[in-house]
Write a structure and sequence with these properties.
The chain is an alpha/beta fold and 269 residues long. The protein has helices spanning 20-29, 47-50, 53-67, 86-95, 123-140, 152-158, 165-168, 170-182, 205-213, 235-244; strands at residues 4-8, 34-42, 72-80, 100-104, 107-108, 111-112, 145-146, 186-190, 219-222, 249-254, 257-262. It has one domain (4-262): Metal-dependent hydrolases (TIM Barrel), CATH 3.20.20. The structure holds zinc ion (ZN) (2 copies).
Length: 269
């Protein structure tokens, strides 16, 4: 089984700490065979102007020239809140040779999910708005895979609150996964939560089982590393859980074309 990490941020993201070069070196040291660097192209707010795809692709080319015999380096992007300016997003995605596009919803009601005070929020209403936002992203359609489906869980956990969308919103979740499946998109397993006190993947196993039951087979895995030390962390654990849910393959992408990798082998070295 190929070890891969399909969600990594370099310093081409405003919150990324390390250079593209350092990210790749770290991935090689950890025996990853394929990585996809997915810097933030966040629509709306100060982060939008930070994103410079020309610089990103220069970094990618330089690293690829140097390390292509040791590792596959895919050029990705994490498009945040694409429905705010779909035409602008389409223009950037058309203009550059991306391998993979991850779409994420980071804002609800014009406010970053990371900075909300969840004790003051009506969680049912917030989640309804969040799910509506995800449906809108699926309708937007110019992406390959949906990032960290139950992201509010991460920020609620920091404030001592628990969110389990499988248990609390099963019908809405089912509807959402059916929509994603009909649109022929993938679902990301984001293992960054395993590095925190929350100790859970986004989404976790019950949601992955529901995805499988809906007929969903496209699944990617990513650490969501924002520094080189976190590249590839908990990927093995994530792969074990994906396998336990019945999946036999994991999705990789080249020039936006899907390529499945088998999950047969359980031994890593
Ligand atoms: Zn994200
Ligand atoms: Zn990310």
């Amino acid at each position: 089984m190929k070890l891969l990490d399909y969600h990594i941020h370099s310093d081409n993201s405003p919150d990324g700490k390390d250079s593209f070069h350092k990210i790749v070196e770290s991935a090689i040291l950890r025996n990853l065979e394929e990585i996809c660097v997915t810097d933030h192209y966040e629509i709306g707010g100060a982060w939008e102007s930070f994103y410079n795809p020309t610089r990103f692709f220069q970094d990618h080319l330089r690293a690829d020239n140097m390390f292509h015999e040791l590792i596959n380096i895919r050029a990705g992007v994490e498009v945040g809140n694409p429905c705010t300016a779909p035409d602008k997003v389409n223009e950037v995605l058309d203009a550059f040779p991306y391998d993979f596009v991850l779409a994420s919803l980071h804002d609800v009601g014009g406010c970053d999910l990371a900075v909300k005070d969840y004790k003051k929020e009506n969680i049912d209403e917030l989640l309804k708005e969040y799910f509506d936002g995800i449906h809108a992203i699926i309708d937007f359609g110019n992406f390959d895979c949906l990032g960290h489906l139950d992201l509010p869980k991460r920020y609620m956990a920091r404030q001592g609150l628990e969110l389990d969308i499988y248990k609390q919103y099963p019908l809405e979740l089912n509807e959402l996964l059916m929509h994603l499946k009909e649109a022929d998109k993938g679902l990301e397993v984001n293992v960054s939560g395993l590095r925190t006190d929350m100790g859970k993947m986004m989404p976790d196993m019950n949601v992955l089982r529901m995805w499988y039951a809906c007929g969903g087979r496209k699944i990617t895995i990513g650490s969501d590393a924002h520094k080189s030390d976190d590249v590839g962390k908990f990927i093995e654990e994530g792969i074990d859980m994906i396998r336990e849910c019945g999946f036999t393959h994991i999705a990789t992408y080249e020039k936006r074309k899907l390529k499945y990798q088998p999950l047969e082998y359980t031994v890593y070295d």
